[in-house]
Amino acid sequence: MKKSSLLPVIGTAMLAAGCTCMALIGKAQQSPAKPAQAQQAQAKPAQAQQSLSQQPQPPHLRTAGKTKQLVIGQEPFLVLGGELGNSSASDLEYMKPIWPKLQAMHLNTVLLPVYWEILEPKEGTFDFTLVDSLVASARLYNLKLVLLWFGAWKNSMSCYAPEWVKTNQARFPRAVNRAGKGLEILSAFSRNNLEADSRAFSALMKHLRDTDSEQTVIMVQVENEIGMLTEAREYTE
Q1: Does residue 3 register a pLDDT over 50?
Q2: 149 or 12, which is more confident
Q3: Could you tell me which residues come within 8 angstroms of residue 127 by beta carbon, excluding any fewer than 6 positions away?
Q4: 98-125: per-residue pLDDT in tens?
Q5: How far from 150 is each of 53, 82, 122, 160, CA to CA, in Å?
Q6: Which residue spans within 22-115 are E strands per DSSP?
Q7: 3-state helix, strand, coil in the chain (%, to 5)
């Protein structure tokens, strides 16, 4: 797919996880509480419950007759979406003239990738600058986002995995074909591959939960086009 392509779609993906908070109340001191302190302690659970009730309900599906509706902010939301090219969202300067074009097309939602190699350039170090900038731009043009996770796989290949994953095949093994040749595809049978991808994806979801109070991100695709292009399956032992 070329960088400039804009494909009209109605996206279906996994709903972004909503925020669930829990109030933790410590044990009472052994010394008797004073009346005022006791009243304050009793008020804390009520305040925590009120805080939970004030949180907006996350985007979700609900049944309406014989169909399903995507609900955002308690109202049905029909996705009129356009999908960016694979690497378009990686360049904020490139995206500057694209946002008004999307708006001019009367879209309300944009499907765009989030790249593992940019999100976690060093193992355990996460950089959300690109994600935050894309969310801010979408808000500026009154657009919702569906994020596509370009993690361990993208259209079968592992080209968007970080360098520290690609260059350590002993720890992050590749899939092999029937001839025993390694491919540019991370093995789906590797626990290390699974856990590294999962940690990065979890960090992304937690960041969205903590920062996207306006619910600009309405869905997240968990993985993108897993499979084998050169073989029907991998032959990794």
Answers
A1: no
A2: 149
A3: 118, 119, 120, 121
A4: 999 999 999 999 999 999 999 999 999 9
A5: 34, 17, 16, 6
A6: 60-64, 67-72, 75-76, 81-83, 109-115
A7: 30, 20, 45
